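Running low. Invent one:
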Amino acid sequence: MSFFAFKSINFIFKQSSPTRKLLNYIIRNKKSIITLICIVLMIFTAIFADVLAPHPPAEQYRNALLLPPVWEHNGSWSYILGTDDLGRDILSRLMFGARLSLLVGCLVVLFSVTLGVILGLISGYFGGIIDIIIMRLVDIMLALPSLLLALVLVAIFGPSIVNASLALIFVALPNYIRLTRAKVMIEVHQDYVIASSVVGAGTFRQMFINILPNCLAPIIVQASLGFSNAILDMAALGFLGMGAQPPIPEWGTMLSDVLQYAQNAWWVVTFPGLSILLTVILFNLMGDLLRDSIDPTLKQ
């Protein structure tokens, strides 16, 4: 098992492999470098929020209710981006909210990609009745809007960050299943797969060692776009009260809690909204750059 895993990783990063070419393209592209730097800074802030945040995220300062940002009149350097209606520091909550949002995005993408790739491999490689059953279930899932389906699932199992994450994993599966299946159905008829079968390669080796590495490039692109979708959907669930519950600092929940103060205290909704916007834009840009690196007609 470990030998096959090592051979697979070694194949992925060969000079001629699609994944290696994709990485080389990203390194040579200035826009992708800037995007990567911004993403790395965001991840760094999320990981070290305990050190970087000026205040505990749930600490309430009753003498600083709805305090404006530092550049506004009556602003204070103790609360650079101001405070909310309960006197909690917005900057600190944004930093801890980044940790939660990125963690949820990583978990949703990790589990949905893993399950989706496995089901897509099985469906595309074996075909027949297995393919029919899997794809009909996928068609049923795609018949409903993803956010609506996630809301129904969270409503059934109860609002919480865990249930919301599980719901997002479930609704993200069809994209990876269909993408992997389509790629596998192309690769399974290639000469190298037929030659491997002739020399006696088993089903596991064919699926995970020979075919899967050649399917990774589009899956990586879809995963990067799925990451931003997961963050956006989690914020939407939090805004509707079906995701993270107070006092957990989550960007969508932060917006929902202070919506009634939007006209009098613009900062309480502006900064969480900008955090969601910038995060989604960054990962969408990364997805676009990955897509451009794969499509030869877009590399110019």
